[in-house]
Amino acid sequence: MKEAIAKLGGWLKKLKIRAERPSSDGNGIRKANAEQSGARTPSPFWVIVQKEFGDHLRSWRFGILIGITVLACIGSIYGAVTSLKESAGNEQSDTAFLFLKMFTASDGTLPTFATFVSFLGPLIGIALGFDAVNSERSKGTLGRLLSHPVYRDDFILAKFTASLLLITVVLFSLGFLVMGLGLMTIGYPPTPEEFIRVVLFTLVAIVYVGFWLNLSILFSIRFRQAATSALSGIALWLFFSVFYSMIVGLIERATAPANATSVDQLLSHANGILLLNRLSPAYLFSEATTTLLTPGVRSLGPLTAEQVVGAIASPLPLGQSVLLVWPQLIGLLAATMACFGISYAMFMRQEIRSRS
Amino acid sequence: MRAACRRTIVSLVLAIILGLGGTAAGFTGSVVSAASAVELYTPYLRLSAPPGESITYSIDVINHGSSTATVDLGFKAQSADWEYEMTAGGRNVSRLAVKAGESQSVSLTLHVPLEVEKGVYQFEVSASGSVLPLAVEVSEKGTFRTELETDQPNIQGHADSTFSFTATLRNRTAESQTYALSAAADPGWNVTFSSGGNNVSSLEVEPNAEKSVTINVEPPDTVKAGTYEIPIKATTNSTSAETKVEVDITGTYGISVSTADERLNANVTSGSSSKVDLVVTNSGSAELKNVNMSASSPTGWEVSFDKPTVESIKPGESARVQATIKASKEALPGDYVVSITASSAEKSADAQIRVAVKSSVLWGWIGILIILAVAGGIYYLFRKYGRR
Lengths: 356, 388
Known about the structure:
The complex is a heterodimer.
Chain A: H1 2-20, H2 44-58, H3 60-88, H4 101-104, H5 113-129, H6 134-139, H7 141-147, H8 152-186, H9 192-222, H10 226-255, H11 263-277, H12 281-293, H13 305-308, E1 311-312, H14 318-324, H15 326-348
Chain B: H1 2-19, E1 38-41, E2 46-49, E3 54-63, E4 69-77, E5 83-88, E6 91-92, E7 95-98, E8 103-111, E9 119-127, E10 130-138, E11 145-150, E12 154-157, E13 163-172, E14 177-183, E15 190-195, E16 198-200, E17 202-205, E18 210-218, E19 226-235, E20 240-249, E21 255-259, E22 265-269, E23 273-282, E24 288-296, E25 302-305, E26 309-313, E27 318-326, E28 334-343, E29 348-358, H2 362-385
Parallel strand pairs in B: 2-10, 12-20, 22-29
Antiparallel strand pairs in B: 1-3, 3-8, 4-7, 4-9, 5-6, 5-8, 9-10, 11-13, 13-18, 14-17, 14-19, 15-16, 15-18, 19-20, 21-23, 23-27, 24-26, 24-28, 25-27, 28-29
């Protein structure tokens, strides 16, 4: 992370230098290192990354999305703070891991911060990736760019890296924004474990948003029309975020054993439904974030009475929480990497000279 | 008093000697009076009395003469321990005047000493040549001593109870005595005396009277089962009495369970086992036999002990037992309670151990393998399609 920020800092400096100089590049991406007069010429990869990053940052699309997200997050923090303040005087309220409740608490009017991230995060990912390749192709800039001494894999890697960097910056800013606002309003400093849990949550969110980014890049490679890829990405996002749980609920009711006779039967049914649910990355993400942000969560599947006998309600240590959601994390990471791998392979094998 | 009497006797003797005009005759010499007109009379010449009692004689001094006689009264005892008083009209008297043909009554009080042998003691009352022999038969052997007795010198009880003995302190001396009470108990024992509801350390007893004293004995906490004798003493500078009380302590039963390092938590990975060193301590004062170890654990867990039964634990000692706690495969990560009980026939104790279950990291490694496989696939793609 530090490394990325350091690179970013360096890039911002370069951007300033470039802004001072009369800009000659238009809409497309152009190789700029020929004009660079520095002693060390940056590799084409980083140049593309910087350019992409800057384009995204200045685009209306991103501005609107980030505006919505920031507003939503501030609203959710406000809700969390008011609900925390209400419960502060309550004797029964648990003060352990109070700071984490900033991310998971809600006063009922607005969803929690974690919910907003899981809902709006994919949208950012899709918005950053849906026209990554096909717009370049349709504008003809792809062929022009690749006629320069730029490796083809540098192009696709840089597209991905720039977007992921932007997502990282956005999510960390949001996460730290929540932490800062929380510190200011509730005046309760986080413990190191809470801090690490928040950072882990942010990293998982980056992976999750990265998955949607990769998926939309994949669509942008597969579909020649930017509108098609955007719509397919948004359709999938809506399907997994909203409709999938409904459909699974429907299946659950339809397949529920009529006469609940044995525990095994019920258990196998519940496990089957859980497996169906876990096919959705949104569900995996919600499980991972719930466990990371709520240390009291000890199990994600159905529980038998035997497992609960003798158990004491106590928060899990961080390592155990991570171990509990390790399959979810692996699943998200693997899905993200697989999407990237497929889009990479697809792009590398694609005919790029033709416009359509 | 006695000395005063003696002095009177001596002065009397002197007076008589002088009176008789140098006749070298003591009291023994004047046993038989030659021509005395004075007669001494009392009806009871030989009486029986126990030691410590007082005998009062009423002696009539009769003047058979024709003129008023002046009579000097004398008393002679065999041993000086006997005390007497001769009174008339409420006062001590040593010389009488008896009119002719009349009689005067004199009262003689004789105190039988406490410390006296059984037997017959002779006395003589003399009055100007007339002698009245008296005899006192002491019916029993007299004492000068103190008695301290308990009706019930043995009490049985637990180590944590207070033992109360009732003792009677009798003063068999002629004088009022102040007794210091003391107990020669082992260190740690607490012995207190109380009389009339108050704790006392000394007790005053009138002569020939008795007082009851309560002896409270508190054994130390660490006392072992057994019989303990505690000598109790009541002493003055002249007399003392001693008795013994016996405390029979039946052992208390106490047992406690803890771990070797007093930490009541353990870590275990679900599906595998962890060892906990338990210490079973006999905190009572009696030996514990056949201490059974048992555990109540969550369903699917197994708790085994290397020594399921400890044959015997002596008081104050402890035994070590190693427990192996095997968590169920289905155990959730987090904390569970395993309660371990050590029970003998008399007493049982339990220790609740908080067991933190950790999930197995096996699946974690499998996950990392999956990620590595995916990363390997991407690397393969890089190698195959890269740098075009």
